[in-house]
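Kindly go through the following sequence and its backbone structure tokens. Advise at your convenience whether the structure tokens fit the sequence:

___
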Amino acid sequence: MEGSPYLSARHEMVDRQLRARGIQDEYVLDAMRRVPRHEFVPEPHRAEAYRDCALPIDHDQTISQPYIVALMTQALHLKGNETVLEIGTGSGYQTAVLCELAREVFSLERYRYLASKAAATLDSLGYENFEIHVGDGSQGLPDMAPFDAIMVTAAAPEVPVPLCLQMNPRGGRMVIPVGDDKAQFLELITRHNNYWEYKRIASVRFVPLVGQYGFNVSDH
């Protein structure tokens, strides 16, 4: 059974770090109360699991700070019946939050070890509405498209065209950080048939999206 220090820390995270900073979607707040973030954090950093900061995981990747997880999730306006594509499984924490809010989640991870570890953690917590694939995140999963929502958890130099084409033409949404190691901005993209509407949300800092439509492997 989950210990009370983690439980109280998670409730405090939601109230002080998320709601107090403008996260208003009650579905998102409730989901982040339920998901035990500490289960996705490596043991040496577990005591910091509910601080509002990014934490390191294997392969020089990170688990995003709770506020950014909430901000990106809120931007997708999930209501429970969506098919979602996540680019960059990482620890699986964001995957779990999406599983709480969507009908089905497909997650794509570049590193097989991270994919396997995240799947094991999600399985152990009882999540069943997800599939994790290994591959180039910048190319998405065209065989599973279209997606009602796409979340990209690594920064691309520009929005990958394949991901735009995998959005549901009838109001599909994508949230993605765009930029380089000097400046990145979180973009919300909404598709209206053959028109894509762009909205800048916030300045952010993410690890790079490596792939054919992202950064070159040799650069990272």
User: Anything to note?
Assistant: The domain at 54-219 is CATH 3.40.50.150 (Rossmann fold). Residues 61 and 193 are 35 Å apart (CA to CA). The radius of gyration is 16 Å.
